[in-house]
């Protein structure tokens, strides 16, 4: 049972890091950023290729995270920014971007899966009857660190305060002279770097491939809806809940249907609580 | 040079401002000035273009023509952020606080773009002026009463230490007592030498604060001058201000 919970927490941390990136972007710009999965793919391949070229894992990981941030900002500057006044176009543009990014990966690296080696591949943490592979432990640690850093940014800095304001009332923020473009770019930068963290952290447990992030993206969208659109802490809580639910489902019913439990939950929530699990009158990033 | 008193030198000079949303022209060739230490009224019926005029000054709506000079400098090309930092603050229609953010966060957002030290110093000054805010700094702004929220909205605008404040219907939705308090507050701000443009439907407040005013109708200035003269004109007072007291 505890083993199942630990696996659920691992999945939950992964979902949370990806979902927070999605919800941040949704909060400030109101786009469903499907291209996030493509950002994760390119970040993972970058990490793999830098490591493959002989660099230490830490350097490769940092390169992957930087790549995630850069590609994400590019999607905003080259695409999303131009449709800000046409929100109906956002889902189509987002899907198009996802296809483009996946095809970039396909062209650059081919379709076969690559495995990412880490210095902690062989580590196995054991306590009582519970065991946790090093790669999973590393993901949990990275998730906690990066979400903690994001929390500090949002709550303690002027930029973070402005970002919360933009998410709550974009026009009112503009009236105070807060530059919208910079806020959009910043949201995408943070989201992309979180995507990079997710890529670096979970690629070693799966494989690096152009479609590696599809399932995670869908689960993360479930989490975003679960946590209330635009809510960072909702996404964190939702991620953990979904991770544990999927973990329990996989352990006690069938692992083949792992993602299905998430969607079952999504449907139930949309029917019962259209606003997500949290009850707030206003959308917010906090 | 004794001919012009420095107090009356215009801080803001708008000329020929035209704003259009697609095919609809909301503001047409509006020209107006605002002087330091005075409150200049903008009156007009619903939909006359009052809000659009204020937003146009700050570059928040698409300007088709016109120039904006601030402190004698042409600032037409500046973006909103630069205008705010130059000293023009807006206290928007419906207050537009961020309701789930703390009062302190709301205030600090008024000084966005300034360094941490400057923001802290201004916050302290704000708490001296609005002592009751200090104890409630951590509360969500949405929890305050309407009058309190309006005071916070004004305090937030003052956090940029503006030389010109644009106020859009600060009395709307407030009780008579709260309106009086807001009037008191605004009179004090003007007395400090700040220029103000006040969009307002409340006649009493206009009479109390404004010496001169502009009347807007269908996006154009149709009358301007001393408030007493404007109000003596029945057509103006009936059509544009209603019978509010
Ligand atoms: N963003 C917008 N898009 C299209 N039309 C707009 C927009 N904002 C204002 N308008 C139109 O411009 C005209 C002037 O509106 P504005 O809000 O400036 O009037 P107002 O004098 O402030 O009215 P009120 O007293 O109701 O606040 C109106 O006809 C309005 O419908
Ligand atoms: Mg208005």
Relevant terms:
heterodimer, A: 286 residues, mainly alpha, ABC transporter involved in vitamin B12 uptake, BtuC, 70% helix, 3% strand, globular, B: 245 residues, alpha/beta, Rossmann fold, 2 domains, six-stranded mixed sheet, four-stranded antiparallel sheet, 10 helices, 37% helix, 28% strand, binds adenosine-5'-triphosphate, binds magnesium ion
Could you characterize the architecture of this molecule?
- The complex is a heterodimer of chains A (286) and B (245).
- With 286 residues, chain A is mainly alpha-helical.
- Chain A has one domain (2-272): Orthogonal Bundle (ABC transporter involved in vitamin B12 uptake, BtuC).
- In chain A, 70% of the residues lie in helices and 3% in strands.
- Chain A is built from eleven helices and two strands.
- Chain A has helices spanning 2-29, 36-52, 57-78, 90-109, 134-156, 158-168, 170-175, 180-202, 214-227, 232-252, 258-272, and strands spanning 124-127, 130-133.
- In chain A, β1 (124-127) and β2 form a beta hairpin.
- In chain A, α1 (2-29) packs antiparallel against α8 and α2 crosses α8 (180-202).
- The longest helix of chain A is centred in the N-terminal third of the chain and has 28 residues, at 2-29.
- Chain A is globular and about 55 Å long.
- With 245 residues, chain B is α/β, with parallel strands linked by helices.
- Chain B has two domains: 9-87 and 163-245, Rossmann fold (3-Layer(aba) Sandwich), CATH 3.40.50; 97-161, no CATH class.
- Chain B is built from ten helices and ten strands.
- In chain B, β9 (210-217) and β10 (220-226) form a beta hairpin.
- In chain B, α6 (146-158) runs parallel beside α7.
- The longest helix of chain B is centred in the last third of the chain and has 16 residues, at 176-191.
- The mean pLDDT of chain B is 91.
- At the A-B interface, α6 and α7 of A face α2 and α3 of B.
- Magnesium ion (MG) is lined by residues 50-51, 93, 168 of chain B.
């Amino acid at each position: 049972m505890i083993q199942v919970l630990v696996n659920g927490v691992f999945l939950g941390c992964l979902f949370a890091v990806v979902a927070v990136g999605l919800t941040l972007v949704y909060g400030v710009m109101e786009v469903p950023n499907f291209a996030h999965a493509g950002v994760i793919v390119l970040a993972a391949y970058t990490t793999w290729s830098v490591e493959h070229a002989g660099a230490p894992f830490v350097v490769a990981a940092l390169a992957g995270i930087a790549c995630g941030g850069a590609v994400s900002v590019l999607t905003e500057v080259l695409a999303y920014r131009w449709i800000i006044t046409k929100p109906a176009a956002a889902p189509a543009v987002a899907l198009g971007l996802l296809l483009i990014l996946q095809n970039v990966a396909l062209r650059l690296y081919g379709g076969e899966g690559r495995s990412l080696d880490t210095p902690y591949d062989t580590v196995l943490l054991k306590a009582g009857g519970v065991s946790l592979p090093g790669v999973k432990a590393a993901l949990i640690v990275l998730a906690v660190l990066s979400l903690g850093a994001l929390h500090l940014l949002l709550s303690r800095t002027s930029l973070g305060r402005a970002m919360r304001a933009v998410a709550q009332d974009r026009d009112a923020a503009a009236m105070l002279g807060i530059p919208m473009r910079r806020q959009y770019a910043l949201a995408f930068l943070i989201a992309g770097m979180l995507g990079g963290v997710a890529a670096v952290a979970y690629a070693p447990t799966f494989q690096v491939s152009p479609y590696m992030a599809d399932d995670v993206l869908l689960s993360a969208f479930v989490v975003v809806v679960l946590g209330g659109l635009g809510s960072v802490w909702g996404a964190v809580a939702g991620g953990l809940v979904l991770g544990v639910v999927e973990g329990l489902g996989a352990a006690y019913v069938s692992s083949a249907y792992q993602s299905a439990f998430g969607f079952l939950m999504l449907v139930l929530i949309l029917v019962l609580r259209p606003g997500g699990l949290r009850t707030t009158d206003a959308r917010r990033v906090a | 040079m004794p001919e012009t008193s420095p107090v009356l030198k215009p801080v803001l000079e708008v000329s020929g401002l035209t704003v259009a949303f697609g095919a609809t022209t909301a503001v047409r060739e509006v020209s107006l000035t605002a002087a330091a230490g005075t409150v200049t009224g903008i009156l007009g019926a619903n939909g006359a273009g009052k809000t659009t005029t204020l937003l146009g000054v700050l570059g928040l709506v698409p300007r088709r023509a016109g120039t904006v000079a601030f402190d004698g400098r042409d600032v037409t090309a500046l973006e909103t952020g630069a205008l705010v930092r130059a000293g023009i603050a807006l206290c928007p229609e419906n207050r537009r606080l961020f309701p789930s953010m703390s009062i302190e966060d709301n205030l600090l957002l008024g000084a966005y773009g300034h360094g941490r030290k400057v923001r802290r110093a201004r916050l302290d000054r704000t708490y001296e002026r609005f002592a009751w805010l200090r104890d409630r700094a951590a509360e969500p702004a949405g929890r305050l009463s309407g009058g309190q929220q309006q005071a916070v909205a004004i305090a937030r605008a003052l956090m940029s230490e503006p030389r010109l404040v644009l106020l859009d219907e600060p009395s709307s939705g407030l009780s008579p007592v709260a309106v009086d308090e807001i009037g008191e507050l605004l009179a004090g701000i003007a007395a400090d030498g700040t220029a103000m443009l006040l969009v307002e439907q409340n006649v009493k407040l206009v009479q109390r604060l404004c010496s001169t005013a502009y009347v807007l109708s269908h996006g154009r200035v149709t009358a301007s001058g001393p408030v007493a003269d404007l109000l003596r004109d029945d057509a103006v007072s009936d059509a544009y201000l209603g019978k509010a007291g």
